[in-house]
Amino acid sequence: YCYDEQHCDPYAWGDLYPSCHPLLELHHSPINLDHDMIRNGSLGPLHLEGFDVTQTGHWTLTNDGHSVILQVGGGMSVSGGGLPDVYHTLQLHFHWGGPVTNGSEHTVDGRRYPMEMHVVNMKSIHPNMSAALEDPTGLAVLGFFIDVVYADNVHFGHISQKLTLAPTLAVPFPLMSLLPKRNMSQYYRYDGSLTTPPCSQAVLWTLYEVPVYISWSQLAQFTSQIFSTEEDAEQVTPLHNNFRHIHATFSRVVSASRDARLLSGTAAPPLRPAASVHLLPFVLLGGLASKL
């Protein structure tokens, strides 16, 4: 939990974790996505093993003071799509802003989406996370932007309705139900880092172009019901703006998959009900947002 300012402030992490210092290392995440990327025709859809069925293992929903984490147990893996190995799925978590601010970690042409979801997968050859963090390709993280419309996302309710209960057991459900399943071949890829301490540069990032849609009330559950302090603290503090600042790409190549539309400017402006409602038809109409 955020028991002091240094642990809560991403700009101060470098004082506690040298690998988080942005001037000492060059492959930090998150980054801004723009048209300065290279299309890679060999980057097809990833193979998401077990994502379309309900797993039988124990799932838990926890709040670690930085985010809400859904630990998903075994049975799922990610491979293909240019990844160098099979990666076992461990957990997913979220980043968000506040009641009137957006909070995705990565940005699109400098603009943030309301939220971002990360599905964390560890290379199968590693026995534990410590070993994976020593490998430049030890983790494969799938990133999904989350935008807001008026209708509830029924599948997202598996998580949002349990936020006040964390830590709690979660009922397993097919993870594919949370993802933009019709647009999984449209993504960007780059080498980066964890976006929380110890900021290890061990992540192959896959950022999907088409967002997941949730309702305003589901977003409000994150911005109002999650706290960064212990429940029995004298004064509880809502967990807001749990995203790390943007870092320069330096010499890194950002690749676009063969089906990526290279959209720009699709991220929602700061939260206003009309902004995201107008975004949805642009996306569904094949990317007209980039031409308007």
Q: Biggest β-sheet, characterized?
A: 12 strands, mixed
Task: Report the CATH C-level class.
Answer: Alpha Beta
Number of domains in the coordinates? 1
What's the overall average pLDDT, rounded? Answer: 85
Distance between the termini: 43 Å
Assembly classification: single chain
Quick one: CATH superfamily? Alpha carbonic anhydrase
Q: Could you please say which CATH topology applies here?
A: Carbonic Anhydrase II
CATH architecture verdict: Roll
Order of secondary-structure elements: HHEEEEEEEEEHEHEEEHEH
How much helicity do the residues have? 10-25%
Tell how many strands the DSSP assignment holds.
14
The helix-and-strand class reads alpha+beta
Number of helices in the DSSP assignment: 6
Keywords: Lyase, Metal-binding, Zinc
GO molecular function: carbonate dehydratase activity; zinc ion binding
EC number: 4.2.1.1
Protein name: Carbonic anhydrase
Describe the fold and architecture.
Belongs to the alpha-carbonic anhydrase family. InterPro entries: CA_dom, CA_dom_sf, Carbonic_anhydrase_a-class, Carbonic_anhydrase_a-class_CS. It catalyses: hydrogencarbonate + H(+) = CO2 + H2O. Its EC number is 4.2.1.1. Keywords: Lyase, Metal-binding, Zinc. The chain is of the alpha+beta class. It has one domain (5-291): Alpha carbonic anhydrase (Carbonic Anhydrase II), CATH 3.10.200. The protein has six helices and 14 strands. It has helices spanning 5-8, 13-16, 129-132, 157-160, 216-225, 273-284, and strands at 32-33, 38-39, 46-49, 59-63, 68-71, 77-80, 87-96, 107-108, 115-123, 139-149, 168-170, 187-192, 203-215, 255-256. The strands form two sheets. Strands 2, 3, 4, 5, 6, 7, 9, 10, 11, 12, 13 and 14 form a twelve-stranded mixed beta sheet that branches. Strands 1-8 form a two-stranded parallel ribbon. A hairpin with a 4-residue loop joins β4 (59-63) and β5. The radius of gyration is 18 Å and the shape is globular.
